[in-house]
Amino acid sequence: MRRLLILLITATVLLAGAVPAGVVGSPSATAGESTAETAQAAQLAQTQADPTCEYPLTLEDATGEEITIEEEPESVVALQPSDAQTLYEIGAEDKVVGMPVSPYTDYLNASADLDITEDDGVTPVAEEVIDREPDVVLAANALEGDDVIDTLREAGLTVYVFPTSESLDGVAENVRLTGELVGECEGAADTLEWMDERLSVVDEAVPDEDRPLAYYAMGDGYTAGNGTFQDEILTTAGVDNLGADAGIEGWATISEEVVVEEDPEWIVYGDSAEEPPVREAATSTTAYENEQFVAVNDNYMSQPGPRVVLAIEEIASEVHPDAYEEAESDLEIDTDVSTDDNETADNGSNDGSADESDDASNEESGDGSADDAEDEGSSGDSIPGFGAPVAIVGALAVAVLLARRQ
């Protein structure tokens, strides 16, 4: 399993190593020189990997738009729940002047006055955003090419559209970028360190354990396959993803015959559902026979933000309880590294890191689980800022239970 901070550094090192042949030292270079150069490269990589708040800042976003931020922003609008989650986790909540305020962000305890969405709690209203005159607008990938983005840019607002988060590395990179975009680089670095620390427990716990097959049931036959961060959540937590093993790409439906044939040992689902949202045939699987279910906080599982690590912890601790407990003890990780939900509720803000993993499964989440999805033959190609169920559930959900699109 990857360590987020190390990988961000490693990626930079690899890029730094791809230099023209003429720039590389001659074969006669001494070992001492090589060591010094390596140390310098590593130091440079660390510097580049850490968020750097220097302005003016010019970046190209996922739409190919080049944006320039002349000075540190004082006001920010988050168009999607995952944008809001990241802002709160890095300690930038005081700069937020607009965001979705709905079941998909209730764990952030934001004021209703900040809401910029339609009655569905999902769709941003361009006029609401424009009226708040934010210095910068953060937009999750699902809004790429959306009319809302065009309208905001035509109104003169600076809008940054994030690339799709298909992995934990992508989530970590978005945390780093958010810190730079809003002037909270220290908070972003602290959040990345916190994520890395939490993942180190799982990393220690699962390598030598058996990897049971798990079915992530989103509802109406939908599941997450290859190329989704939910797939990596599952594999990082120490289980094999049935969707990926069955050849599912992105978010799509899987037949009940395949589920029964694969015979998962565990079923993972969003905790807004009272029971696993599976079809009747799936009740004959080993997971059902042994009642091996993991109900994970919907918002943590579906939003590509820092709290994905809590979803990973929840799954790992349920599937590999003894190994997880031992690893947590061995690494002496303080599981209370951040403000818990009760304190957040009192203060109305987050200190920049997520709450206890134990609270993750008990927190109130959005209504909507993926069982709002319909049309068995379709698949989701893009996920708004709230990850998997969105394109699928989001598009379908609005018609049913507000579906999710975070």
From TrEMBL:
Record domain Fe/B12 periplasmic-binding: where: 75-327
Annotated region (Disordered), positions in chain: 323-386
GO biological process: cellular response to iron ion
Residue ranges, compositional bias (Acidic residues): 324-344, 353-378
Keywords: Membrane, Signal, Transmembrane, Transmembrane helix
Gene Ontology cellular-component terms listed: plasma membrane; S-layer
InterPro entries tied to this protein: ABC_Transporter_SBP (IPR050902), ABC_transptr_periplasmic_BD (IPR002491), Peripla_PGF_1 (IPR026469), PGF_CTERM (IPR026371), Vit_B12_bind_prot (IPR054828)
Record carries keyword Transmembrane: yes
Transmembrane segments: 386-403
PANTHER family: MOLYBDATE-BINDING PROTEIN MOLA, VITAMIN B12-BINDING PROTEIN
Name the record gives this protein: ABC-type transporter, periplasmic subunit
Lineage: Archaea, Methanobacteriati, Methanobacteriota, Stenosarchaea group, Halobacteria
